[in-house]
Design a protein that fits this description.
single chain; about 110 residues; mainly alpha; 4 helices; membrane; transmembrane
């Protein structure tokens, strides 16, 4: 039996954001990071002000992906989402907050 094998979880209870059977997984719980939560809320509000329907749809797709990849702590995908959102929204400070949290530098993303 490998080190990752298990027979079951009879009687076990798990909290949210639980990873079972993964190696070296570091997940982020957005609710525990107020600066990330605030930045995401600001971006979400900014999405509503996009007039062009196609741009708005594209921004919403990248926003949803951004949230998922923040939770997965996937730096490269967070960076890609931020880069794609940058020309679509006006709230650059929120993007910079998230980039800074992950230690990322996004070309063209300056205040």
């Amino acid at each position: 039996m490998s080190k990752n094998s298990f027979k079951g979880f009879k009687g076990a209870t798990f909290g949210d954001n639980t990873n079972i059977g993964g190696d070296n997984v570091k997940q982020i719980k957005i609710e525990e990071h107020s600066e990330i939560r605030t930045a995401l809320n600001d971006i979400s509000k900014d999405l509503k002000s996009i007039d062009n329907a196609d741009s708005k749809d594209e921004a919403e797709i990248y926003y949803e992906s951004l949230v998922k990849n923040i939770e997965k702590n996937d730096h490269s995908k967070v960076e890609k989402c931020l880069s794609k959102l940058q020309p679509l929204i006006s709230n650059v400070s929120s993007l910079m907050t998230i980039a800074s949290f992950f230690g990322l530098s996004i070309p063209g993303l300056t205040m």
